[in-house]
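Lay summary. Proteins are chains of building blocks that fold into shapes, and those shapes determine what they do. In this project we predict the shape from the chain. Here is one chain we studied, written as its sequence of building blocks.
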Amino acid sequence: MAETTKAQLIAAAAALLDSGGQAGVTLRAVAERVGVSHNAPYRHFDDRSALLGAVAEEDFRRLQQLFEDAGGETESGAALRQACAAVIGYARRHPARYRLLFSDPGLPPDPGLREAAFACFLTLSRLVARCQTDGVLPEADTVGLSGLVYAAVHGAIDLELGGRASGAKGLGDIDATVALLFDLLRG
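And here is the predicted shape, written in a compact code that computers can read:
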């Protein structure tokens, strides 16, 4: 099935983010990359912010799928570690898109974007709940514990992407940091 122009514009914006960061994403550059007129993006998006919001929404849905795929692991702790590894891998492969998802206050307050972001979090929260049921993580408020895991993983990623992580600070390796977090939570 042929990809719609809107989907092509979103994919082009994501590719431009990957190659040049947000500065490289203009509606004109996206149109050129897709091979449509410079006005064509305006038929689908009000402005650049709306286009970036569409990229973010799609990427939250991709992350949610990665979390769901990780949930297929038979052991709950392995499933949660795999989900964390998936978001770490995504951030390393797509740092500008990661920043768009988690650090861009300029994204539009779009209901679809909020829904995709929250659905992604809920998928992670279900993995945390499964770990709690299996005794891999402590009994606690599941949403609060999920928020703690989410914040710790994203904080470690942000430090690495920003060049502020170092072994001297105990943050030389995100994977080791996340493993330590789970070891501590297991008690």
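What the prediction tells us: Residues 1-45 form a domain with the Arc Repressor Mutant, subunit A fold (CATH 1.10.10.60).
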